[in-house]
Amino acid sequence: MKSVPAGSAADLDILVTPDMTVQFDELGAGHPVYATYWIAKHFEEAGRKLLVPFLEVGDGGIGTEVSVNHTASALPGMRVKVTATALRTEGRRLYADLTAVSELGDVVASGQTVQYITDAARLESGFETLRRRWAEHQSAAHQDKEKTHA
User: Fold this and answer.
1) Is 137 labeled as catalytic in the residue annotation?
2) Is the pTM here over 0.85, yes or no?
3) Does the active-site annotation cover 118?
4) pLDDT in tens, the chain (150 residues)
5) How far apart are CA 89 and CA 91, in angstroms?
């Protein structure tokens, strides 16, 4: 990975849609405003956008932390600018400050992300191991279910 200078920034422009409002899986519709979990997704994406230009061939990055302090609401139809600003790099970790500001000038949220930079092949190998473990788990669960019904 190339060095990421402190103060480097990346912007992500978001148009809040009705799908980005609070819709809980179990509890149903909540407040009709930009949901905190969507902000977390957009913080993660902006942090990734900040990192990508500094990755070298063979590098892979993965988000390991995201924090969101949700301080104001944004309605569907409003534009929100998410900005990721590099704080520092420690070893293979990129720390960034994030802000989300609505077109009204309201600070909708602030927070931080951490991206971990590693070898892309190693990262994919870890995912492959997880897929294998999951397939084995599903197979064992299926066999247990068949034994129960036999």
Assistant:
1) no
2) yes
3) no
4) 888 999 999 999 999 999 999 999 999 999 999 999 999 999 999 999 999 999 999 999 999 999 999 999 999 999 999 999 999 999 999 999 999 999 999 999 999 999 999 999 999 999 999 999 999 999 998 888 777 776
5) 6
